[in-house]
Amino acid sequence: MAEPQLPEKMRAVVIKDEFQIEVQTVPVPTIQEDTDAIIKVFRAGLCGSDLHFYRGHQPKPYNFIIGHEAIGEVVRCGSAMSKFKIGDKVIAAFSTSCGDCFYCKQGHTSRCAKGLVFGGPKISGAQAAYLKVPLADTTCFHVPDGIPLDVMTLMADVLPTSWMVAANARRLAYEYRDEQDKKGGVCVVIGCGPVGLCAITCALTMFEKVFATDLSPQRLKMASTHGATALPMEQLEAEVLKATENRGADAVLEVVGVPAALQSAVKLIRPFGIVSSCGLHTHTVDLPGATLYGKNVRFQFGRCSVNTYFEPALKVLQDNIELFSKFVENTVSVEEAPKYYDLFHKGEVGKTAFSFDHDN
Amino acid sequence: MAEPQLPEKMRAVVIKDEFQIEVQTVPVPTIQEDTDAIIKVFRAGLCGSDLHFYRGHQPKPYNFIIGHEAIGEVVRCGSAMSKFKIGDKVIAAFSTSCGDCFYCKQGHTSRCAKGLVFGGPKISGAQAAYLKVPLADTTCFHVPDGIPLDVMTLMADVLPTSWMVAANARRLAYEYRDEQDKKGGVCVVIGCGPVGLCAITCALTMFEKVFATDLSPQRLKMASTHGATALPMEQLEAEVLKATENRGADAVLEVVGVPAALQSAVKLIRPFGIVSSCGLHTHTVDLPGATLYGKNVRFQFGRCSVNTYFEPALKVLQDNIELFSKFVENTVSVEEAPKYYDLFHKGEVGKTAFSFDHDN
After folding, report:
1. A158-173 and A306-319 helices, crossing angle to 10°
2. Chain A partners within 8 Å of B289 (Cβ)
3. Any residues with CB less than 8 A from the CB of B336 and at least 6 apart, and which?
4. Could B103 and A271 be called an inter-chain contact, meaning their C-beta atoms sit closer than 8 Å?
5. How far is A176 from chain B (nearest CA, A)?
């Protein structure tokens, strides 16, 4: 396919400072390295971790295009690219990876030696009409047929992250037993935002029973829709103990990124249980040393290696397409970004995607 | 063998309060449950974790026989015992286990549903001329020929714990790679007391390079003898980075049980590295949330399941018998316990074992 004409300018969501989101007209990016691609963005997701910037919890100054969930079409290819061609529908992982370094070779693409997360001071973000994707061959994935665009945005971060946080828990919880493939055990998901809800769906493929908790009654209701036994924290511990012969949860998935959530996880876990955390922690975490020792607690923290978990996460999406079709609550014009950042921050809207007007 | 006559009274080390150790004359224990054994103690080790009581870091009141490292001879068997008979030379794991509960079946004997650690308010300790061992069939091990008694005391806690802390690190550091049996990677041991020194020896069978650090220059010297590259903390980070192409350590073994040691571990670890901790933590631990997320840190905390690690730890002991023969620095009469608790607390003596006068 011939290279399409590109405009010189585009609309993009720029974070100026905490609580300051502006939609600006900026230059369309161009290929800089032979491994770069430019994609025309159809949908860009608004993610809970964007709120860490919005709420001022990340190092300043800000003044960059934000966002890390983009789905679109390849419009420019660097000369070293071989996996994608112009016209391909692609989704980019939320962080770039080279596929060839110490970390990538182990499947830990989220800590690629050259890797960067879209939407920060170092590489421009996905909430823009066009996105430059560095290391495109190993950062992009083909978009399969039959999945609506809005739903597919979940595959940039939310669903692979959710799969990872559940799969880490499941693997570590059973590493000593010959039951890796058998569904079993009791899991608790702390936090029922988008990642938490997806984590419930993923965990239900691995654990026999999944509890979930959140401060918001509305989110608890959503958690029930996803199949969890959803309870406010004050009722949770007793029910978990009841379900586990008083042992505590085999696994706790902490998807919030605040110290209190981790502390609750440590409280709910059984001895030799696993606390699997994908929450973006930014504060000091105080943990009770005597309990860490006393329960032989295990933790796995951190960012998802999308390349490692893309395939099983996509299967969860395809197997639950009806559930996830209702999942992206709002698809709105990028011009409404300031309003939706505010609503999302206040917990008044759920998962949101931005669309772009590519005819103007 | 016929049941030998037992005295009615014995000498035992009683902890009365912090920094208050008394050697008292107390009744010899008797069989209470049909799974109990009574062993005549030949040697009882003084362990770093005894100091948690001594220093007042454990819940009070105290007033019990302390100690959890005993080697001796079976002198009474409960009627339900089948694995041991009177006259057998045995060593007891530092905590009891049933072999049959949820945890024991997974090899997590340190969190046995019926398990207790010797030398606490619930079961009398090992620093006594006679010891009652509950659940004796699954808590005791036969003593192999050819290992001196003093050295064998290491098998109650120190060496299995050291093997565990290293093996957990090795297993988790390589779980994604097909290199489980290949020696490789860079490991750091924080703390060079008895467990730290043994952990160095264990880690050297698994990792390509082992660094070690401690506040005490004398302990650093010992760490060198065990084969580590021993450095004070202020030189360590730069050398670890040099040895790992600037990544950081693949694994850090934290054997101290103080928050600063864990904080150093988190600082030294590479992304997706594993912090393996056997330190008995008693305080709140403040950890930097951004680093936990930013490095995808993994932790395994807690107490050793001796039954699971006894065999490989014994092999390390047998393979390094000369090194370990010098390891127990002092074997002294139990009557000297108050003095040696004080010296051990001040770091003025190394691993110490108590002997008992069974002729009186």
Report:
1. 100
2. 257, 259, 281-285
3. B354
4. yes
5. 6
Q: Does A256 touch chain B (CB under 8 A)?
A: no
Q: Are A290 and B271 within 8 A, CB to CB?
A: no
Residues A212-245: tens digit of each pLDDT: 999 999 999 999 999 999 999 999 999 999 999 9
Residue type, A77: C
Residue-wise pLDDT for B220-262, tens only, equals 999 999 999 999 999 999 999 999 999 999 999 999 999 999 9
Contact indicator for A74, A86 with CB cutoff of 8 Å:
yes
Q: Which residue in the set A247, A296, A302 is minimally distant from B110, CB to CB?
A: A296
Q: What is the pLDDT of residues B106-140, one digit of tens each?
A: 899 999 999 999 998 899 999 999 999 999 999 99
In order of their start, the domains of chain A are 9-157+305-355 (3.90.180.10), 160-300 (3.40.50.720)
CA distance A267 to A249: 9
For B5-53, give the DSSP string. Answer: P--SEEEEEEEEETTEEEEEEEEPP---STT-EEEEEEEEEE-TTHHHH
Q: In whole angstroms, what is the distance from residue B121 CA to residue B104 CA?
A: 23
Cβ <8 Å between B293 and A284:
no
Task: Give the nearest chain B residue to A266 (CA atoms).
Answer: B301
Contact B289 A283 (CB under 8 A): yes
In this predicted model, what pLDDT tens digit does every residue of B141-193 receive, in sequence order?
Answer: 999 999 999 999 999 999 999 999 999 998 877 665 555 567 889 999 999 98
Chain B closest-CA separation from residue A82 CA (Å): 27
Q: Using an 8 Å Cβ cutoff, are B235 and B227 in contact?
A: no
What rounded mean pLDDT belongs to chain A?
94
- For residue B66, how many other CB atoms are within 10 A of its CB? 26
Give burial (CB, 10 Å; 0-12/13-18/19+) of A216. Answer: middle
Residues A10-37: what's their mean pLDDT? 97
Burial class (CB in 10 A: 0-12, 13-18, 19+), A83: middle
Taking the C-alpha atoms of residue B357 and residue B360, their distance in angstroms, rounded to an integer, is 6
Rg (CA), chain B: 20
Tell whether A301 lies on the interface with B, counting CB pairs under 8 A.
Answer: yes
- Answer yes or no: do A287 and B285 touch at CB < 8 A: yes
